[in-house]
Amino acid sequence: MTKILLLGGTGDALRIARQLTSVDVYSLAGLGKVPDDLPCSVRVGGFGGSEGMARYIADEEIGLVIDATHPYAAQISANAVNAARHAGVPCWVLRRPAWQPRAGDDWRMIDGWDELTMALAPFRRPLFTLGREPLSHLDEIPPHQFWLVRCLDSHEDTERARIIAARGPFTLEGERALFALQHVDVVVSKNSGGSATEAKLEVARERRLPVVMLRRPSLPAADREFESVAELLDALHLSR
After folding, report:
1. pTM of the entire structure?
2. Potential cystine with 164: which of 71, 150, 216, 220 (Cβ 3.0-4.6 Å)?
3. Strand, coil or helix: what is 16?
4. Residue 157: domain span
5. Domain containing 59 — which CATH number?
6. pLDDT tens, 88-122?
């Protein structure tokens, strides 16, 4: 049986991990909760770049690498493709489709933090859903702004920011309540795709609020690419 190395850390990856076997390995960067109820082994920590991952693939006799990391985990995705190629094994990638703007949406596309800062200048109560990056900029909050930052990391609130440690999926009702209670006037988001965190976009649409959207990074081509967990699992079952 082909031994699989699954690179994860997302809800989609966890769904795949639950379909693996005892010979397979689910690899996490170590951020967030580590599952203890999977049929496969769980590995926590980095590999030391693509070369380190290639050595791990060879040493552990991995026959297939599956990248189911976040769409913005550009470095690990690049390492996975390069390591698999160097080790001579296939690399499959789960890349869920990006969200697309709908009628009534006001999306303002950006490529990095400097552009983000300029895009947020007219607003007072932004909701950040970018992960932990805003936590390193809490001392840069403009005098007229109060930030609401939602991420996986616990962090103390400040006089100018409230930090919400939470993991999706988020409901439409819950997002409506959050926006109303916190007087959100702009949403800051990655274009992650999927349904788990999409409700914030629906609420922004309802309230006619702009969304400052970070463009997806360019990712290297893999041997096979899948848009859904079901599609990938079907191919996996056929290959085994």
Report:
1. 0.85
2. 150
3. helix
4. 107-214
5. 3.40.50.720
6. 999 999 999 999 999 989 999 999 999 999 999 99
